[in-house]
Design brief:
Layout lengths: L13 E7 L10 E6 L5 E3 L23 H13 L1 H7 L15 E5 L5 H9 L4 E6 L2 H9 L3 E4 L12 E7 L8 H11 E12 L4 H6 L13 E2 L2 H10 L2 E8 L4 H12 L5 H10 L4 H6 L1 H9 L5 E8 L1
Parallel strand pairs: 4-5, 4-7, 5-6, 7-8
Antiparallel strand pairs: 1-2, 2-3, 3-9, 8-11, 10-11
Helix pairs in contact: 1-2, 1-3
The structure holds zinc ion.
Amino acid sequence: MEKVRCPICNNHKFTHILIGQDNINKIQGKFNIVKCTGCHLLLTNPRPNLIEIKKYYPIKYIPYHPDFKKSVTIANFRLKYPLIYSIIDPQHNINLLTHKKINNILEIGCGAGNYLYELKTLYPNWNISGVDISETNINYLKKNNINAYLSNLTNIPHKDSSLDIVYGWMVLEHVHELNKAILEIHRVLKNNGIFCLSVPNAASWEFKLFKENWHGLHLPNHLYHFTPKSITMLLEKNNFYVKKIIFQKNFSSVFSSLSVSIENSSSPKFIKKISRKVLKWNIFYHLVTLPFSYLLSFLKQSGRITIIAYKK
Ligand SMILES: [Zn+2]
C-alpha cells in the first residue's frame, strides 16, 4: 500500500470520511476514504500501489467483456430513432460532434472496445483508436480490426496535437499517475480538442444515502471520488476548460447500491439471493425509473456525471 499527496493541491493533510471494502470482487481488505483539507478532494488513501492493484482487476471484470453485437444494436437504434435515443440515453447523448469535422478519435481505458465498436458503426469515416492496460483486450481488438494500443496513459502512442476527441468513460478515477495522464491527454489533443469523460459523482445523494455501500465507490479500484467541483479543479489545473457538466439520467447505480447494502447486511441468505435477481438492472427498469433520473439530473444529484472539457 502507498500513501499519497492530494493530486490537485499537493496537500498531505486529510480528514477521515469512512472505511469501505471491495464490494464487487469481494477481495479481502479495508480501505480508508479521506478528504483533502486543502481542496476537499475525496481519495482512497493509503491505496494499493501499481503492482498490488492488479489483483482487483480479475478476468471477470465487467468492462473486459466484449459485446459488439450490443454495440451495433445501440448504434443502429441511435441512427434510426435519434429523438427517442436522445430521451432515453443515459450517458452518450452528447451532440458535440456535428459542428466540426472530426477525423481522429481516441478512447482511453477502452476495455473490450464496446464503445469503440459503437462509434465505428455510427461514424464509419472516423479514424478510431483505443488504449487500455489489458493486453488481452488489446489483442482482441486488434484481431477485430480496431487500432488499439497497450498504454497506462503516461505514454499515449499518438503525435502531439493530433486528436479531435479523447473519450474516457469511468477511467480517471482508476489512474495512479493522474496529473501525468491528463497532461498526456492534453498533449495528444489538437488545440480546442475535446476531452469527454465521465466519473461517479461523490456529491450525489446516492453517496450520502448509501455511504460505504455506494456502488460508485468501487474500492479500492477507484482511487479518487470526484465531485463536479473537484473534477473541474483537476482539469483546469491541467490546462483544460470545463465547458459543460452533464448529470446523467440513469438510476442503475441506485439499484446496484441497494443490492450491495442488502449483501452487506445481516439479512437471511434467501433474501440476498432474491434481491440479487430482482435488482439486476435491465432496460425495463431504466424506462420505469426515467422520471426519477430526470428529476435527479435536474437537481444535479445524479450518481454519475459526464464532463466536456476543451484543451486550452
Ligand atoms: Zn487537495
